[in-house]
# Entry
Amino acid sequence: QVQLAESGGGLVQTGNSLRLSCIASGRTSGIGNTAWFRQAPGKEREFVASIPKIGDFTYYADSVKGRFTISRDNAKNTVFLQMNSLKPEDTAVYYCATSRTIYHDGHLASQDQSYFYWGQGTQVTVSS
# Structure
């Protein structure tokens, strides 16, 4: 079992930044990739970014490329999502999720079916 806890969400104005954190506990040795997904009201959950536990392959949704950066601190079992130049359309509940497999394929890394454990989410609201 892996438990995930997200933090760092909040209310910000357009153009500002937030950094989300996802702390993993439990059987963290079994983690492959960690990803961020988001779900806005009335919309389906969508992929945001993914990073493997080992290696440098990161993968981003087109909508956040150049604005968001995913990174990790394996010593602290933590993955971060630095979000810059935030837009109102970034408003959503942000979830982190972990897989049991390391993905170096962007398609697989972006599918929610690839992830087994999920956190409870943290709300991000960007006002215009």
About this structure: The mean pLDDT is 96. The longest strand covers residues 18-26. The CA atoms of residues 52 and 112 lie 15 Å apart.
